[in-house]
């Protein structure tokens, strides 16, 4: 007798479950996707013990016919595909017919469902893949699936589960992000009867973002609107339209990992390296290389353009035109960041009540709240700590010295002379509204979303457009430029500002093939290590491209005959070593283009005005003017902020005038 046997369905399903059901959140994902595929308008999730004890989903979708209710648990049973050619145009979230049998093979599952076409419903009970019960039941239209004791029969898998809080955090994140992808539907999530998410149907993503994250986070995000790109089609095909929607964070929002990046392709939550890379390229030299943005991207493309049948959990996709999509995403991100030109505002310490804090909880803390059941107590403790912090003693403050103080009036100055005594608030209000009104008149921030609900209006003019109108008043510690703007007080880091100016200048000159350089009076001879020599040979032409004229000089040395105009002779050797080091480090990971950017960054950093350098008013004005003309005046090539703004509104708040 041969040795090969065909596995029983029970074993096959359990094997499939290994891929499909990794953890409680994967069950939630499959069940949510099924409910959405069934056209549900509202979905409710109840979870106990991080999803290990119980996951129940209740939907108001179209339900299942009696015969289908049992069939759904057969392997590869699906109502969503019938033919191989359907695989090329999948419009539903599910299609493999694997989820229900897989989940049922590793849990105790109950299905209760009724279709509108039948007068009674069906109840099916399965445990560890074995059918226990199948009977008629009086039910409303829709489907309820209850999954208990996940992995009760797979002890090995159970051991790999993380803490209850971690599993719950995954579930919460998943439900939240599906809710963002489907704003027109309602979502509820409860854990041990505690409500974690409850959002009613709304008109668009923006409102959903507000429901989920609150106004503060919405302020930190830039709306992409709806962007479209036409892909060149084959001669016999219609041109393909790709659409990108969503939100990306302003540069000052910097996350330590990718957990705040959510990518959806045709409404399906996916992990995709191509899209992640495109996003990172969009943010290159705007945030530090080891920081990540918050991003919610929804890409819509014709079903034939994307293969979703790559992995059993359907979280990976393959694009037919990867490059087109990559560049589309990268360009959109960059464009939107350029337009928004957002800046950092000065962090303000405010002691607020825990209740207020909870109301405008940024997402990171939302998930922390999930992780930390004791959130409220903690928030209270923190609030107390805030209150306890002693006000700074004047003697502790660094000396505030203004160089060459000048007489500048604050544009739109406050006139307290005629202020009606106690009712100062009104006056403050008018002032605060002013820049917004002005911006609206200039039409710089078109609101394409119609009126926002009260309290949602973002603070206007966080734009660096204001840079153009800055009036410098002096320098703090010979390092930071203090300036007055229409929207508040600005502090500009002179070194990073100049760095950004030079960086863009070098990049522009490189692109045009015309770099300014200076001949050295005496060639500079530099000795290289073995690996530096290898790198040197690889990038010699690029060194030339940024303005270094070099040539081999003896076996281990090179002679530098010219250097970029902005780099002093004293810095030349340092810059060359730095560039060789960059090339070596980036050898395996990055493109030549990225190395060029880093070369430009290195030159800019070495050549830029240092801190602790006194500047006269002409230099200061020149610097601000040049900065205003840069493409990304908000952060240096390494991602540090260039300018901080102390908004008039915050100043008024600080003085309790509003
Ligand atoms: P797939 O989603 O890949 O088709 P599943 O195993 O997830 O496979 O589900 C099997 C079938 O069960 C689906 O094709 C669908 O017809 C039916 N089904 C599952 N969940 C629901 C639901 N919530 N409402 C209605 N039908 C459902
Ligand atoms: Mg499914």
What do these coordinates show?
Helices cover 37% and strands 21% of the residues. With 658 residues, the protein is an alpha+beta fold. The strands form 5 sheets. An 8-stranded mixed β-sheet has the order 5-4-3-6-2-1-7-8. Strands 9, 10, 11, 12, 13 and 14 form a 6-stranded mixed β-sheet that branches. The chain has a 5-stranded mixed β-sheet with strand order 17-24-20-19-18. Helix 15 packs across helix 18 (592-607). It starts with 8 loop residues before the first helix and ends with a helix. Magnesium ion is lined by residues 30, 33-34, 94, 99.
Distance between the termini: 88 Å
Strand fraction: 15-25%
Low-confidence regions: 347-462
Corresponding CATH superfamily of the largest domain: MutL, C-terminal domain, regulatory subdomain
Mean pLDDT: 76
Which strands sit side by side, in order, in the main sheet?
5-4-3-6-2-1-7-8
Counted beta strands: 24
The CATH topology annotation of the largest domain reads as Ribosomal Protein S8, Chain: A, domain 1
Q: Which class of secondary structure composition applies to the elements?
A: alpha+beta
Give a list of the ligands: adenosine-5'-diphosphate, magnesium ion
Shape: elongated
Query: Helical stretch count?
Result: 20
CATH architecture of the largest domain: 2-Layer Sandwich
CATH class of the largest domain: Alpha Beta
Task: Determine Rg (CA atoms, Å).
Answer: 30 Å
Task: Give the domain tally.
Answer: 5
């Amino acid at each position: 007798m041969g040795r090969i046997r065909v596995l029983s369905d029970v074993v096959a399903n359990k094997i499939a479950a290994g891929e499909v059901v990794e953890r409680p959140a994967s069950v939630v994902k499959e069940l949510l996707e099924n409910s959405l595929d069934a056209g549900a308008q509202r979905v409710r999730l109840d979870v106990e013990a991080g999803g290990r004890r119980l996951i129940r989903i209740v939907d108001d979708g179209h339900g299942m016919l009696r015969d289908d209710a049992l069939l759904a648990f057969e392997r590869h049973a699906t109502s969503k595909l019938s033919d191989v050619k359907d695989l090329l145009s999948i419009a539903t979230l599910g299609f493999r017919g694997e989820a229900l049998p897989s989940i049922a093979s590793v849990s105790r599952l109950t299905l209760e469902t009724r279709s509108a076409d039948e007068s009674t419903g069906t109840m099916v009970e399965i445990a560890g893949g074995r059918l226990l019960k199948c009977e008629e039941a009086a039910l409303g239209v829709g489907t309820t699936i209850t999954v208990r004791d996940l992995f009760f029969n797979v002890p090995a898998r159970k051991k790999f589960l993380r803490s209850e809080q971690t599993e719950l955090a995954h579930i919460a994140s998943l439900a939240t992000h599906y809710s963002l992808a489907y704003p027109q539907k309602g979502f509820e999530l409860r854990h041990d009867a505690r409500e974690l998410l409850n959002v009613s149907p709304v008109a668009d993503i923006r409102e959903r973002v507000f429901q989920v994250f609150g106004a503060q986070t919405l302020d930190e995000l830039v709306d992409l609107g709806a962007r479209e790109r036409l892909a060149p089609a084959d001669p016999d095909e219609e041109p393909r339209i790709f659409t990108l929607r969503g939100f990306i964070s302003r540069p000052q929002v910097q996350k330590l990992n990718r957990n705040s990046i959510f990518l959806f392709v045709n409404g399906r939550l996916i992990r995709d390296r191509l899209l992640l890379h495109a996003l990172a390229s969009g943010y290159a030299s705007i945030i530090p290389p080891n920081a990540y943005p918050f991003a919610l991207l929804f890409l819509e493309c014709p079903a034939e353009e994307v293969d979703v049948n790559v992995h059993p959990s359907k979280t990976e996709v393959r694009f037919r035109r990867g490059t087109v999509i990559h560049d589309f995403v990268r360009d959109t991100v960059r464009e939107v960041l350029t337009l928004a030109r957002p800046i950092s505002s000065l962090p303000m310490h405010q002691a607020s009540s825990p209740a207020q804090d909870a109301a405008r909880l940024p997402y990171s803390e939302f998930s922390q709240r999930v992780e930390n059941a004791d959130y409220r107590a903690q928030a209270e403790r923190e609030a107390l700590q805030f209150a306890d912090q002693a006000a700074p003693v004047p003697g502790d403050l660094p000396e505030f010295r203004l160089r060459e103080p000048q007489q500048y009036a604050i544009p739109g100055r406050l006139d307290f002379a005629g202020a009606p005594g106690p009712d100062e608030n009104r006056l403050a209000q008018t002032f605060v509204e002013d820049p917004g009104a002005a911006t609206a008149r200039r039409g710089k921030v078109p609101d394409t979303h119609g009126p926002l609900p009260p309290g949602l209006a973002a603070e206007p003019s966080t734009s660096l457009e204001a840079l153009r109108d800055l009036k410098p008043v002096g320098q703090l510690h010979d390092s930071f430029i203090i300036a007055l703007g229409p929207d508040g007080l600005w502090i500009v880091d002179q070194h990073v500002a100049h760095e950004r100016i030079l960086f863009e200048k070098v990049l522009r000159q490189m692109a045009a093939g015309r770099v300014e350089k200076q001949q050295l009076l005496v060639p500079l001879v530099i000795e290289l290590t073995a690996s530096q020599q290898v790198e040197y040979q690889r990038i010699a032409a690029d060194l030339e491209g940024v303005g270094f004229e070099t040539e081999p000089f003896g076996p281990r040395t090179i002679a530098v005959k010219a250097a970029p105009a902005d780099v002093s002779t004293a810095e030349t050797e340092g810059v060359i070593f730095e560039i060789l080091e960059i090339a070596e480090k980036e050898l395996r990971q990055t493109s030549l283009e990225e190395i060029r950017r880093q070369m430009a960054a290195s030159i800019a950093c070495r050549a830029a005005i240092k801190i602790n350098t006194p500047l006269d008013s002409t230099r200061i004005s020149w610097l601000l003017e040049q900065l205003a003309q840069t493409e990304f005046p908000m952060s240096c090539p390494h991602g540090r902020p260039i300018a901080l703004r102390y908004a008039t509104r915050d100043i008024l708040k600080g003085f309790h005038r509003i």
